[in-house]
Amino acid sequence: MLEYSPLHELKRREAALKIINSKVKEDRSNLYDLTGLSGGFPVKQEDINLLETYAGPAIFEEKLQPLGVKHLGGEKVLALNRTSSGILATILALVKPGRKVVHFLPQLPTHPSIPRSVDLVNGNYIEFTDTDEFKVTEKTDLVIITGSTMDHQVITEEDFLKIIEVSGNVPVLVDDASGARLRTIVYKQPRAIDMGADLVITSTDKLMDGPRGGLMSGEAELIDLIKTKSHQFGLEAQPPLIAGMVGALENFKPDRILESRFKKQEVYQALLEDFSVEETPTGVMILPENVIKELKGKGMDTPLNEDVAATVLAMILLREYSIITIPAVGMPGASPTIRIDMASKDAERLEVEYITQAFKGSFARLEEVAGDEETCKTILFG
Ligand SMILES: *Cc1c(COP(=O)(O)O)cnc(C)c1O
């Protein structure tokens, strides 16, 4: 039986990268990265000579400070290797063994970095998706709010404010990996800090063309504690990453996110004719449970579980249609939901027709192979 283990995920990711490698060697323009994480490394020629251990931070941390505060609010900015690193550093700094971390998110699943980090400090992790049930106790060291989930489910402003109120004096960290853009630009909500959060972290490659990295801001005193931990455990961003973040924030244009919503509507309407697709703020997604439902609806009897089936579909999209989605390239623990983001840079080059044909063709192929585990293994792992 094909299972969905971290080791399998790693092997699948390696297979996906190999396919991408051979496609890119032919021609980068044949590849369509629709993950919304296409990132980039916008550093200027004159910056490259400054990418040194001490000169680098001296220059780029200073440049990052006002740009980060403008984007996120807060008093002091901290650059981390990834959003996950920032979450870990915060939990290491603020949560004592046996104490609680209470997480509110609009919808499951949770980003795995949160429960895993709490586990490392022997804390207790509790999560809520209903504000009426949410509570903190004497034992709570940290509240985390996810502003926008991995599947781009966005918290309402009302729920956000309610959690802030219920949290009282407990520090609140907002995981706004994509939310710092989706919530504010698409949903016109205030920045997390402006709604009373103490700390916020965002990913500089989600809905902006920056490198994969975590940009945190908040109360200076808390940031200093977290920064200390980040240095102790090597979680901080290195100079090249900080330089990339500076360039990304300088170049950031909210308009592409707003414009992508029109093309998204076209894709959504076209796919809706054949699939149980759902809208996200800037794209569409097919949930793993709906991949299985579609297969069963067509009378298929498949031994695959829903996460594996979705991943096979993502690998077919990559192999046969050169479309990159997260379930193909994601790291262990990434969401198996097939999501395409029309705010991705590569989406600009794609016709709606190509996308619908790619989904139809890939699904037809999945139907052919879903009963045959050996073929699925070859599709997943090469
Ligand atoms: C992407 C994401 C993260 C983690 O970002 P990494 O760059 O993978 O560390 C954490 N939380 C949420 C909600 C995310 O969407």
List the topology elements:
Layout (H helix, E strand, L loop, with lengths): L5 H21 L5 E2 L11 H4 L6 H18 L3 E5 L2 H12 L5 E5 L8 H8 L3 E5 L11 E7 L10 H11 L4 E4 L3 H8 L12 E5 L10 E5 L1 H13 L6 H13 L3 H18 L5 E2 L3 E4 L1 H10 L8 H16 L1 E2 L1 H4 L8 E4 L10 H18 L3 H9 L1
Parallel strand pairs: 1-11, 3-4, 3-5, 5-6, 6-7
Antiparallel strand pairs: 2-8, 7-8, 9-10, 10-12
Bound molecules: pyridoxal-5'-phosphate (PLP).
The site of pyridoxal-5'-phosphate has 13 residues, from helix 4.
What key phrases describe this protein's structure?
alpha/beta; three-stranded antiparallel beta sheet; Aspartate Aminotransferase, domain 1; 382 residues; 15 helices; binds pyridoxal-5'-phosphate
Short description:
With 382 residues, this protein is of the alpha/beta class. The chain contains 15 helices and 12 strands. It has 2 domains: 6-30 and 254-381, Aspartate Aminotransferase, domain 1; 45-251, Type I PLP-dependent aspartate aminotransferase-like (Major domain) (Aspartate Aminotransferase, domain 2, 3-Layer(aba) Sandwich).
